[in-house]
Design brief:
This protein has 13 helices and 9 strands. By secondary structure, the chain is an alpha/beta fold. The strands form 2 sheets. Strands 3-2-1-4-5-6 form a 6-stranded parallel beta sheet. Strands 7-8-9 form a 3-stranded mixed beta sheet.
């Protein structure tokens, strides 16, 4: 059961109630904040209100009016611009000094663009992508990596802790998104390595449950091994962080690498392996479904 840090109640908005945003906004209510939500599909907002209370609004602007902090968690750069900018966007209605916090995994460029747009309106913007997946959102144990001004970060941190175990300022605007790219690069390599290790061990006739238990106590241990290794052995992939989402994230990584000159040969290769899983019908399977490329069976979407 999540234990919430005592913090003054704030008036907040949450824009985007997908698999991450729905439980994250719920934690804000349970932590004692006054929450108004917006979702492009109004029925999802109504279902959220029925579950948690709070209120819903028909537009991002209406949800954000009077809010101290406006959180959003949507799909990509264009979705983010859609809920924050324009006549119905949050920025047009937010009060001076309010903070917009973006939990979308997006580009560093759009973070800087929105930071600049916020400043022209007397607002603050924090790019704050998260790690921990749907279970982390449900359990309130996400890791949040942030970019932006220290004062704005301080204003949002205590509120965001309602659904996080760590909220950390990584640097100026865009640093949160760049940190998330580092995170996804590391995960991609880990999952491919774990997939190859399991496939190799099975081909060698080893008891892989025992093998993972043993090597998981040594230098090979990782979150992926602990949490995805057992489900990979069971052939369970119909959950978790979808292949489509990982390919979107790795696309951001590879685009940024072209700009900054980083060489990511393994990441580029794993991205193509995920394309193979998509071609096999596994677009919505968990990222650990990389194993299926090596074993041969066609994924079940």
């Amino acid at each position: 059961m999540k234990t919430y840090e005592p913090t003054p109640a704030r008036t907040v908005a949450f824009l985007g109630l997908g698999v991450m945003g729905h439980p994250m906004a719920g934690h804000l209510v349970r932590a004692g904040h006054r929450v108004t939500v917006y979702n492009r599909t109004a029925a999802k907002a109504a279902a959220w209100v029925a579950e948690y209370g709070g209120a819903s609004a028909a537009t991002p602007a209406a949800a954000s009016a009077g809010a101290d902090v406006v959180f959003c968690c949507v799909g990509n750069d264009d979705d983010l611009r859609g809920v924050l900018l324009g006549n119905d966007g949050a920025f047009v209605a937010m009060k001076p000094g309010a903070v917009a916090v973006d939990h979308t995994t997006a580009s560093a460029q759009v973070a800087r663009e929105l930071d600049a747009a916020a400043r022209t309106r007397g607002l603050h913007f924090i790019d704050a992508p998260v790690s921990g997946g749907n279970l982390g959102a449900i359990n309130g144990t996400l890791t949040v990596m942030c970019g932006g001004e220290a004062a704005a970060f301080d204003a949002m941190r205590a509120v965001a802790m309602a659904y996080a175990k760590a909220v950390t300022l990584m640097g100026e605007s865009g640093a949160g998104q760049l940190t998330k790219m580092v995170n996804q690069t590391a995960i991609a390599g880990l999952i491919q390595g774990l997939s190859e290790a399991i496939a190799f061990g099975q081909q060698a006739g080893l008891d892989m449950k025992l093998v993972l238990d043993v090597i998981g106590k040594g230098a090979a241990q990782s979150w992926q091994m602990d949490h995805r290794g057992p489900t990979m052995l069971e052939g369970k992939f119909d959950f978790g962080f979808a292949v489509d989402w990982m390919r979107k994230d790795l696309g951001l990584v590879l685009d940024e690498a072209q700009r900054n000159g980083a060489r990511l040969p393994v990441t580029a290769l794993v991205d193509q392996f995920y394309a193979d899983v998509q071609a096999m019908g596994g677009s919505r399977l968990d990222t650990s479904s990389l194993l299926l490329r090596l074993l041969g069976p066609k994924p079940t979407p």
